[in-house]
Amino acid sequence: MYQEELKREVRELLRSRNAVLLAHNYMRDEVQEIADITGDSLALSQEAAATDAEVIVFCGVHFMAESASILAPEKIVLLPRLDAGCPMADMVTVEGLRELKRRHPGVPVVTYVNSSAAVKAESDICCTSANAVRVVESLPDDEIIFVPDRNLGRYVAGFSSKTFHFWEGFCPTHERMTAAGVLHLKEEHPDALFVCHPECAPQLLALADHICSTSGMYDWCRTSSSRRFIIGTEAGILYRLRLENPEKEFILASPALVCPNMKLTSLEDIVLALRSMSPVVKVPEEIRIPARRALERMLAVPRD
Ligand code: 13P
Ligand code: SF4
After folding, report:
1. CATH number, domain at 275?
2. Is 128 in the pocket of ligand 1 (CB under 6 A)?
3. pLDDT of 149-183, one tens digit each?
4. DSSP 8-state class, residue 139
5. Residue 22 in contact with residue 72, Cβ under 8 Å?
């Protein structure tokens, strides 16, 4: 009941503030339920760039709110939990990236959006898990610096004849999954297909029937004729998978697939953020301008 009151209050506040609520596919169920738009990192940055709302309430992690601020500087971007960060994004620093660029002069930097605005500002182009292969192939160069995700980088390199220089960053949530655990589930459910996110380690990707971004999983599982799936990404994805496919079964590949940062934002946090119009995420202009160039170059890469 209390939850219902909170949801009503969020909807009213969103209306009165002329705000839009964007939520990543990993958010808590009740946050996804009241969001105007849910999506993967690519869809949410496109939405932030296109929305008419004056305020964006970003239910996700810090780098996502930064991307919204970079693409929509005239809007107020609220991140209800300022402490919702991404450990993978924190694994690459501006100094570290500059050093890598010094070692490979003239080589373009492709930066996964799971990175700080300051790192994006040092990059040539961004990518998400949904478009990384296309982004890399859109570049004429034979060599690529890829940061920060070593797993996504190596996955993309498998589709390319270019030489890659990787950063050894990773997502601690996806890396908690084990191949032994997945093999055990496959044995228990021989009819199930295993679908996983490219942030997973190579030994997990080698077991996958399909590899894609979070939103890619909705499309793939919906259109697949299989009735059972082992899901290799963060638990929040199960909410919409089960809602959209009540006749299918979705088994999480590991109980450890919970990102603590993605679980921080509650309905109470959203109400408080909209009442107080804080915390605001605003990227300073000297970082925003070069970071926007890298994000806009990514958004300009044609879709398949
Ligand atoms: P996508 O939703 O873009 O697949 O990203 C996954 C992720 O880890 C976001 O933090
Ligand atoms: Fe970062 Fe991994 Fe959490 Fe995504 S799931 S926010 S990559 S720690």
Report:
1. 3.40.50.10800
2. yes
3. 999 999 999 999 999 999 999 999 999 999 999 99
4. S
5. no
